[in-house]
Amino acid sequence: MRLKTGDNRSCGCLKEEYHSRPSKFNYDSKEYRTWSLMQQRCTNANNPSYKFYGARGIRVADAWSGRGGFAAFLTDVGPSPSPDYSIDRISPAKGYEPGNCRWATATEQSNNQTRKGITFDGETKTLMEWARCFNMNYHTLYGRIHARG
């Protein structure tokens, strides 16, 4: 009856056909998950990371939002070089936008944070850089600094 009135477009076969079509993008990919989580932490006040992003004024470029946003994001930053990389804002004060985002390793991201470095013997470096200098595990150094001051 609903087919006759126009309320339904098919008996269900269109849904099966739609879901069996090859997708232009892999929506299970690292890149899509990255894009989706980036949107969430900048726009969804219920997201646990929102306080560090959206609440601080970090925004996603209009070109990377909404319909066609993922395609534009992927065109601008390209695919992740490996599973060890995640999205990084080159200038932490700016938002997620073309020219300010790159795929980076955890070390590169650690060195790019807005936190102040640690000064030792008149030289200032990030904790990750100091750990490399002393050939120490990052977490060991972190624990010692925070436990002993």
Mind explaining what this structure looks like?
- This protein has 149 residues and is mostly helical.
- The chain has seven helices and four strands; from the N terminus they run H-H-H-H-E-E-H-E-E-H-H.
- It has a two-stranded antiparallel sheet. A two-stranded antiparallel sheet has the order 3-4.
- A hairpin with a 2-residue loop joins strand 3 and strand 4.
- The longest helix has 14 residues.
- The chain is elongated and about 80 Å long.
- The chain starts with a helix and ends with a helix.
- The relative contact order is 0.08.
- About 5% of the residues have low confidence.
Overall geometry: elongated
Strand share of the residues? 5-15%
Termini separation? 75 Å
Fraction of residues in helix = 25-40%
Number of helices in the DSSP assignment: 7
Nearest-integer average pLDDT: 81
Task: Kindly report the spatial arrangement of strands forming the biggest sheet.
Answer: 1-2
N-to-C series of helices and strands: HHHHEEHEEHH
**Biggest beta sheet summary:** 2 strands, antiparallel
How many β strands by DSSP?
4
Properties at a glance:
single chain; 149 residues; mainly alpha; two-stranded antiparallel ribbon; 40% helix; 9% strand
Summarize this, please?
The protein is mostly helical and 149 residues long. Helix content is 40%, strand content 9%.
Task: Draw up the topology in text.
Blueprint: H1 2-5, H2 13-20, H3 30-43, H4 69-77, E1 86-89, E2 101-104, H5 106-111, E3 118-120, E4 123-125, H6 127-133, H7 138-148
